[in-house]
Every structure is written in structure tokens, then in C-alpha cells.
Amino acid sequence: MEGSSATKRAHGLTREALRDGFVHELVARSGIDLPVLSDEERRASLKATLAAQPVPGDVWLFGYGSLIWNPAFHYVERRPVLIRGWHRQFCLSTPIGRGTPENPGLVLGLDCGGSCRGVAFRVARSEAEAELELVWRREMVMGSYIPRWVKLHGPDLPEGTYGIAFTINHAAPNYVRPASEADTARVVATACGALGSCQDYLFDTIHGLKGFGIHDRHLNRIADLVREHRS
User: Fold this and answer.
1) In the 3-class helix/strand/coil scheme, how is the chain assigned residue by residue?
2) 74 phi/psi in degrees, rounded to 5
3) Torsion, Cα of 208, 210, 212, 213 (10° steps)
4) Which segment of 16-30, 96-110, 146-160, 200-214 scores lowest on mean pLDDT?
5) Residue 177's CB: how many other CB atoms inside 10 A?
6) Catalytic pick from 139, 159, 181, 228?
7) Which of 68, 192, 201, 210 has the largest CB neighbor count within 10 A?
8) Nearest CA to 99 among 1, 173, 199, 25?
9) At residue 10, does pLDDT exceed 60?
10) Is residue 58 scored above 80 in pLDDT?
11) pLDDT tops 90 at residue 30
């Protein structure tokens, strides 16, 4: 697929980069006055989330975007699942990772309503705190997401299986209300930042979903519009 992870692009968000504070460095180098969670706030968020686990045991994490094709954390298994009450949406503006202050990009969040098919990763409970610390360093930088436990639905999952999902924080300064698919495609087609282009992010996500037999019609329509914009 054109512009997909089938080209095996190297991704900047590696385990080592996350461990060494690469995302926070990106924010610091941007020169933008952005609200950033302190190490203490980030650790407290992770600790509180794990303490609220509905059922003791291994920890499931729900991926709906870049976590699918570049998890950068260790897991025991992964499988396609469905969650209800949330849908995948380009609703988070990014002036550094996939855009610039002059031309901010858009990345995905889970917004209220509908349902979403994605990939659930099972992390061994003994390793959960260390592995999820990397995920928190990646996702919980500016408080743009609210981690919460959501019910996972899948043919081989026991009833009552829950996983952590990063849902969008409507109070975050970089939350944007969903725009038309055409407007979203214009941003995705033109924005590029330190982590690469928005269109690569889009195509990688589509390709990652297809690897699990998941076809997102909304993303596919945006992809078609991005191709038209480039032609």
C-alpha cells in the first residue's frame, strides 16, 4: 500500500527514545509554551489507573492508532477487539510530532459515541508498571488523553475483560471538534513534523488495521481524499 508501514519506515518512538525522554525533548525544543505533565503527575496517573483495574491479573491495553503499528512496549499477545461508547476520530491537533506551530497536524483520539475496532495488547501483570510507564511517557505528555478502563469484546475473550484506552480530553487545549472529512484530509495531506507526516500516520494506521482484518471506512475515505489532494 502506498504510504503505509509496508515500506518498513523507521519510527522515532522506540523503547529507547521513550525511556530517554524523547517526547518531552520534542516539546522543549519546539519553543511553544505547552502544558506538560510533570514526572510526578504522570506516575500518579499510571498508578491510579492500575489501581482501578476492574479485575486483577494481566493488563490489556487498547490500541486504535499508532500503538497498533508501533507499540514500542513488550506484550504477551495481541488480538482484534471491539469497544463500545467510543469512536476513532482525528480530533487532536499536534504542533510538534506530526506538524509544526505554523502548520499543526492532526492525530487520532477516542471521542464519545459509537464503537471502535482496534487491537488489544495483553501485558503481563508483573511487567505492567514498567511497560506502561513507556506508554504513559508517549501518550500522557500534555494531558490530552484520559486513560480509562473500557470493556473489550472479542470472540475469544472472556466476558468482563477490560482494557485501558486513551480517550480524548475535551478540556485539553489541543482538542479540536471533529471537522468534515474533506477538511481533515487537507490537514493530513499537508502537515509534517519531527515524527513524520500526518499522511504517513494515516496510511500506517490503515495498514495496521488491515493486518487484523479491520477496515475503517471513515479512515479509508479520508485516505482517498488525501490522495486526491496530492494529485
Assistant:
1) CCCCHHHCCCCCCCHHHHHCCHHHHHHHHHCCCCCCCCHHHHHHHHHHHHHCCCCCCCEEEEECCHHHHCCCCCCCEEEEEEEEEEEEEEEEEECCCCCCCCCCEEEEEEEEEEEEEEEEEEECHHHHHHHHHHHHHHHCCCCCEEEEEEECECCCCCCCCEEEEEEECCCCCCECCCCCHHHHHHHHHHCEECCEEHHHHHHHHHHHHHCCCCCCHHHHHHHHHHHHHHC
2) -85, 140
3) 170
4) 16-30
5) 8
6) 139
7) 201
8) 199
9) no
10) yes
11) no
Q: Is 129 a catalytic residue?
A: no
In the structure, what pLDDT confidence band is assigned to residue 182 with cuts at 50, 70 and 90? very high
Mean pLDDT of 15-34: 82
- One of 3.90.550.10, 3.30.365.10, 3.10.490.10, 3.50.50.60 is the CATH number of 15-229, namely 3.10.490.10
Q: Does residue 3 surpass a pLDDT of 70?
A: no
Query: Which one-letter amino acid corresponds to residue 132?
Result: L
CA distances from 216 to 60, 65, 87, 227 (A): 22, 11, 11, 17
Q: With beta carbons less than 8 A apart as the criterion, state whether 62 and 164 touch.
A: yes
